[in-house]
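Input structure tokens:
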């Protein structure tokens, strides 16, 4: 019995944890079959400073986990400064940046999903109150519904491009759609997207997972 309860606990825990999945399609330029970028700048193209910081920082974190250097653009190009194109090129060279990822945040939203009512259970309780020679009987019914809840599922679309700093050419492009479950937030969606970008770049052989010793 204890084993069954423990199993149910883990299933329930996994269900309640917000999670998301990302569907991504990518294309690598034929001239970059043997590329191996090592120092990457992350640029989130959004005027929302909070969203930009979160997105760039999470992407840097994902690259760091596989031993690849990445840097947030807001640290290299502070939004408080007016930098010319030449200024930016010099900063890229000074920091040894060999590539940059440009993230275009597309449409996003929340899907409302209502679970159909599958069953109802009605329980009736009665009480008898006696006052002298008089007895009063009162009934109370309670109905419980299975289903009927409405859940919110966040989603977001992104377009991601990888550029070679040495010549300004696009080496890789990907479009993606990320959807979360009923317990996910937009942070969950963003985390799934960032993780998938790094996995796809490794799969497409544009970066090397330094934690993989095989």
């Amino acid at each position: 019995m204890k084993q069954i309860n423990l199993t149910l606990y883990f299933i329930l825990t996994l269900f309640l944890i917000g999670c998301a999945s990302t569907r991504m399609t990518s294309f690598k330029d034929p001239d970059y079959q043997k590329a191996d970028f090592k120092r990457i700048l992350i640029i989130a193209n959004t005027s929302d400073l909070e969203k930009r910081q979160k997105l760039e920082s999470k992407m840097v974190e994902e690259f760091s986990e596989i031993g690849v250097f990445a840097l947030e653009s807001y640290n290299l190009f502070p939004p408080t400064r007016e930098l010319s194109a030449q200024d930016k090129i010099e900063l890229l060279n000074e920091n040894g940046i060999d590539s940059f990822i440009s993230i275009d945040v597309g449409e996003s939203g929340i899907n409302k999903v209502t679970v159909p009512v599958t069953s109802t259970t009605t329980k009736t309780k009665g009480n008898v109150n006696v006052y002298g020679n008089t007895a009063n009987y009162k009934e109370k019914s309670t109905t419980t519904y299975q289903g009927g809840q409405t859940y919110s599922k966040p989603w977001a679309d992104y377009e991601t491009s990888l550029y070679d700093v040495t010549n300004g050419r696009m080496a890789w492009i990907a479009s993606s759609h990320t959807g979360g479950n009923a317990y996910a937030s937009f942070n969950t969606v963003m985390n799934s997207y960032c993780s998938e970008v790094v996995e796809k770049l490794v799969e497409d052989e544009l970066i090397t997972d330094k934690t993989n010793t095989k």
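Confidence is low (pLDDT under 50) at residues 8-16. The first strand starts at residue 20 and ends at 28.
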